[in-house]
Design goal:
Rossmann fold; five-stranded parallel β-sheet; two-stranded antiparallel ribbon; 12 helices
């Protein structure tokens, strides 16, 4: 039996070395594992089998082929890595990987166009795969909410901040949960039934976002999850889930699709509320002297 791998990179390297000698079914699983590393954090064995068009027993054989007792032990490598942050390579390491992959020096404009094309493809896929029912439900939740809370940490923070900015142009009370001064708990203290939480998170799923989502569910608030998988921890508790899979180019994941979805959500809500963003604020009526 092959020696069990202790890191994602060791495992991926081992899979790459053994790939040519694998049976057809195991090759399909190998492609899935290497191309969907973040999904492996939360995927069930049935999900992997379905995606690869194989039986669950083939997934078990794949795990055993690389030294694991079964799927759970294989999955633990991905979960442990993402939990510790080891799977998030630093920017310097990613740039070095780009240089190693492209032996001929690339022009800056060539790099830019490659990344832009990937972003365009991601937005096109988002448009084609948009869950219309979930999107309509999300807009209705925001329309009816007494108070809208928004959370997105680390890489998802820009999307949360943008939504906070745009939604503040409505007549809704909007709160960005940014944890300033470590006050996540205090910022969600008033969250209650009748309110809405927009939770934005992708694998490995920020602990702060998961905590706020669980709190919102406990208090009976509606939850809009913007995430990369219907199996993610925040999606399981959500009233409406909007799924976005950002493309990866040069070992970097874009934010273009996430931002596009955020803008679309605001525009749809503004249309519902019949906003006139150019109109000056109403002045209070004068009373007689």
């Amino acid at each position: 039996m092959a020696q069990q791998e202790n890191s994602i990179e060791d495992l991926i390297q081992h899979i790459a070395q053994a790939y040519d000698g694998l049976p057809k079914q195991l090759k399909s699983i190998a492609q899935y594992v290497t191309q969907h590393r973040q999904n492996m954090v939360i995927a069930r064995i049935l999900d992997v089998a379905h995606a690869c068009d194989v039986q669950p027993s083939a997934v078990v054989r794949f795990a055993q082929r690389f030294g694991f007792s079964g799927f759970s032990e294989l999955q633990a490598v991905f979960r442990d890595a993402y939990a510790s942050g080891a799977a998030e390579a630093g920017y310097r390491q990613r740039i070095q990987a780009v240089i190693s992959e492209h032996t001929a020096q690339m022009r800056s404009a060539e790099l830019a166009r490659g990344f832009m094309q990937s972003c365009q493809n991601g937005i096109a896929a988002l448009s084609q795969e948009l869950d219309e029912a979930a999107f309509e439900r999300a807009v209705s939740i925001l329309q009816e909410a007494h108070h809208i809370y928004i959370i997105g940490v680390r890489r998802m923070y820009p999307v949360a901040a943008y939504l906070s900015y745009t939604l503040s142009h409505t007549n809704k009370r909007v709160a960005l949960i940014d944890g300033m001064g470590g006050m996540f708990r205090e910022q969600v203290g008033a969250l209650a039934a009748g309110d809405a939480l927009i939770a934005i998170s992708v694998a490995p799923y920020g602990a702060e976002t998961r905590h706020c989502t669980e709190l919102a569910a406990e208090r009976g608030a509606d939850i809009i999850a913007i995430t990369d998988s219907s199996l993610s921890p925040i999606a399981r508790l959500a009233t409406a889930t909007l799924r976005v899979e950002e493309p990866e180019t040069y070992f970097f994941r874009a934010l273009s699709s996430m931002m596009c979805l955020a803008q679309s959500l605001f525009i749809a809500l503004a249309y519902r509320l019949e906003l006139d963003l150019d109109a000056p604020p109403a002045m209070p009526a004068k009373t007689g002297a």
